[in-house]
From TrEMBL:
It is found in: Cytoplasm, Cytosol. Keywords: Cytoplasm, Detoxification, Transferase. This is Glutathione S-transferase. GO terms for biological process: glutathione metabolic process; toxin catabolic process. Residues 59-215 form the GST C-terminal domain.
Length: 228
């Protein structure tokens, strides 16, 4: 049995975050598929409080919640470049935007009107994030500088209700007809997204846009699986 196991389902944005972090740190792991609609005894034992994916199991010990897992991976395997910024302010800023992305209010959209409002809020957020990126990157290709970092991972797998700045945003653009990454209004983010899409850690994980469109339609019909 591998010393590192990941309980999840593919594709899942939250699971993708963990996979990207594992790939960035070159960590070998066993991926164990779970059924979010029929939780296994293994999942319930590993995450008895929230009963959801993803769960990372390292040397028999479970770690839950995608962004917490990403931080754990960064701390547990600290023999390579850090995923989190070393500067305390930059680290706090990355966590702030990650928390904004994971805001429960933004993630839940059960009606067309609610989704329209959320799309507007995300578009507004993307303009603010553009300003942050220009100040944050210092001419570097990623929020993490020369290398993909914490905020790149969080933004790179944004919630299905909103669309991510990679696979899910493309799917949501197809569904909603709204272009989130406008090369004129958000040129920095648009360029960043292209770089992220071509990065090996993301290419190995994120699924094709059309697959996500079909999954989105399916989930709207039966409710979204529990994950976080």
């Amino acid at each position: 049995m591998a010393s590192v196991q990941l309980l999840g389902v593919s594709p899942c944005l939250y699971v993708n975050r963990v996979q990207i972090a594992l790939h960035l740190k070159f960590i070998e792991y066993e991926f164990i598929q779970e059924n979010p609609h029929d939780r296994s005894e293994r999942l319930l034992k590993a995450n008895p409080v929230q009963k959801r994916i993803p769960v990372l199991i390292h040397d028999g010990k479970a770690v839950c919640e995608s962004l917490i897992i990403v931080e754990y991976i960064n701390d547990a395997w600290n023999n390579s470049s850090s995923i989190l910024p070393s500067n305390p302010h930059d680290r706090a800023l990355a966590r702030f935007w990650a928390a904004y992305i994971d805001d429960k209010e933004l993630r839940e959209a059960s009606t067309a009107e609610a989704r329209k409002e959320i799309i507007g809020r995300i578009y507004e957020g993307s303009v603010l994030l553009e300003e942050t990126f220009v100040k944050y990157d210092g001419g570097k290709p990623f929020f993490g500088g020369d290398n993909v970092g914490y905020l790149d991972i969080a933004l790179g797998s944004l919630d299905i209700a909103l669309g991510s700045l990679m696979g899910w945003v493309k799917a949501t653009e197809v569904i909603s007809g709204v272009k989130f990454l406008d090369e004129l209004k958000t040129p920095g983010l648009a360029g960043w997204a292209e770089k992220i899409c071509s990065h090996n850690a993301f290419k190995e994980v994120l699924p094709e846009t059309q697959m996500l469109v079909e999954i989105y339609k399916m989930l709207q019909g039966r409710g979204k699986p529990a994950s976080g």
